[in-house]
Amino acid sequence: MKKIFLVLLIILIISNSMVISLAETDKAPALSAETAVLMNASTGEVLYNKHMNQKMYPASTTKIMTALLVLENLDLSKTVTIDRETALTGECQIYLSEGEKVTVEQLLYAMLLKSANDAAVALAKEVAGSVPKFADMMNARAKELGAKNTNFVTPNGLHDDNHYTTAYDLAMITREAMKNKEFRKIITTLRYTIPETNKSNIRELKNPNKLLYSKSKLLVNGTIKSIKYDGATGVKNGYTNEAGRCLVASAKRGGIELISVVLNTTADGKFADSIALLDYGFDNYKSIAAVKKGESFGKIKVSKGAVRNVEFVADKSSYVTTSAKNSDSEINTKLVVDGRLQAPLAKGQKVGRIEIYKGDKLVDKVDVVTAAQVDKGGILSGIGVPDKISHALGIAVLILIFLSAILLFRHKRAV
């Protein structure tokens, strides 16, 4: 009897542990990072938050902002001549020499793959003329992107007590940078060669982001996993003694792209934490295209126009993040038209908006614009008669007048 009771007790314990395990699959991962965030790259929605607004030292993840400003302000083929001050930049570098000539593109690869601090300084000076002026540009652009708890002092992230950001701010900056095709190309390049210059032999660069290629494995929340991450799309690592190990990572699967940021963790932790966050996002969330750019929402009447109505379309796409378990039916849209329209109307002119709701919550708005130009109509357009019909009526009237004249002429001759 005791044996039977013992067997039943063991079965009960195993059953309970299985239930607990299944119930915990939706739980957020345990991280070694001091702060972290997981964000939907399309929507900017936060899917996981660990002290995401706490000010932290970003180390070389700073270079994401530097790259964004460079790509927005410089031609990649432009040649940069290195000055003495830049050549003396410390820590990680590609040892640029005074008077050396390199292109903006080569410096970007050096900065994002090798994390070269001297390359970052060279680019900053080429954009703004000096590092302080470039830092001003960095801070202004950060605020435009919604990064409100950030203050940049350097273009490379070398430690300064007044140089800080947050996990959330870094994710917002990265989200904008990822919209640039050249940035995406650079951060996913595994190897790059800077050809011989007037001052140096060729330089070989290797991407340190192991999520893109590593065959090694590591422990992720109690499970051994490959470091190479399926669907990885970037982004940038960083390290200083004060900042600890940092990594901004991204991956795309099944129509949803996620950005993770982990700050002040360990050498293995930066990859383990990133994998845990990305897994959590892909396992528990999906991204739905609520509105697609160019999608038609019908036609709207135009007063005094050459045509009676005009088609209106969405000005951009909008995506909504929802639980992977939820039905798409919880996403609803509502059309709001900006009153009565009167010609003339330009193509692409805003005529209203689409409000996007997740359940009862308004989550986004998308402008709707005219799909074609509408010119001012003729004299009859004021009563709703478009020019095409007006012209046809005019022709019909002329024909009637002509026929009437002929009949009248014949009648007079007969008399």
TrEMBL record:
Q: Where is the Peptidase S11 D-Ala-D-Ala carboxypeptidase A C-terminal domain?
A: 285-376
Q: Where does substrate bind?
A: K236
**Which transformation does this protein catalyse, written as a reaction?**
Preferential cleavage: (Ac)2-L-Lys-D-Ala-|-D-Ala. Also transpeptidation of peptidyl-alanyl moieties that are N-acyl substituents of D-alanine
Matching SMART domains: PBP5_C (SM00936)
> What Enzyme Commission number(s) appear in the record?
3.4.16.4
Which BP terms from GO are recorded? cell wall organization; peptidoglycan biosynthetic process; proteolysis; regulation of cell shape
Per UniProt, the enzyme's principal EC class comes to hydrolase
Cite the InterPro entries for this sequence.
Beta-lactam/transpept-like, Peniciliin-bd_prot_C_sf, Peptidase_S11, Peptidase_S11_C, Peptidase_S11_C_sf, Peptidase_S11_N
Which residues are named in the active-site annotation?
S60, K63, S115
Matches recorded under PANTHER family: D-ALANYL-D-ALANINE CARBOXYPEPTIDASE (PTHR21581), D-ALANYL-D-ALANINE CARBOXYPEPTIDASE DACB (PTHR21581:SF33)
What does this chain do? Removes C-terminal D-alanyl residues from sugar-peptide cell wall precursors.
Name of the protein described by the UniProt record: serine-type D-Ala-D-Ala carboxypeptidase
